Every structure is written in structure tokens, then in C-alpha cells.
Amino acid sequence: MSDVNALGLLLALYGTIAMVTMGIGLGLYLLYAFGLYRMAERAKVENSWFSFIPILQNYIIGKLIGQMKVGSWVIPRLEWVLVIIPIAAIVLGLIPVIGTITNILFYIFWVMVTYNLFRKYSHHAVIMTVIGIILPFLYPIFIFVIRNADPIRRN
Known about the structure:
Blueprint: H1 3-42, H2 54-65, E1 68-70, E2 73-75, H3 78-92, H4 96-121, H5 125-134, H6 139-145
Antiparallel strand pairs: 1-2
């Protein structure tokens, strides 16, 4: 086989892998967006179409959760915190040591947000959060699965 044919075959293989990966990514994004949209519609969240805009998806999650407790501190406007913190984490991420610390803290905060969202709509919040952390591609699937769930009342 000539070098030109081998290169063409290799490029075709890489292109196929890239297209399949993008297709899977698009599918997971759509599951996530439609799941959030349905949850927002059921909760009567204004501007539920934000579910299809990546950074504004966090706004919808904040609206769905409402208030979140971190220790004895309550975050009242979680929707705006979830829009601002990722942007701040990106900016602070440019600073070597501070960026690393900020990203670790943001990750821990996001795990807490994920748990609170799953806790509000599922009896399997711990399992879904842990699996969502270990296998992040399942997170959008979990969101899609709980899209029609009613909020669970907790004391």
C-alpha cells in the first residue's frame, strides 16, 4: 500500500471517529437540554428555553433547585450564582495556583449542586451523583430520565 493510500485511510478513520464522537456528544447535549427544558416547563420556570443555551442551563438548574444550603449558609439566588461562578472560575483559571484551587472548589460546589438537583427529583440522588461523577456521560441521561418526575417533598 502506498503512503498516500495509507494516509487517506488513516484520515478517513480519524474522520469517522470524530463524526461518531460529535454525534454522541450532540445526542447527549440534546438529552440534557430537552430534559432540563421539560423539568423547567413542569416547574413553570420562566424562560425555560434557556435550557438550550449552555451557560444559561445553569440558570435553569438554579431555578429548579431554588435555595441550596452549604453548611449553615443558604444560597438564596442560586440561579445567578450558577451563572456567575463558572465564568469567574474560567477567568481565575488563568492564574496558575489560584486557578487550580478555584477549579477544585468549583468542582466540589458543582457536585453539591448535582446532588441537590437529583435529591429534589429522585430517591436515588446519591447513586446518580456518584455515577454521574465517575461516568460524566451518564449525567445528561439521568437528567433526561428524571425530566417528568415531580419534586419529592422533604421535611
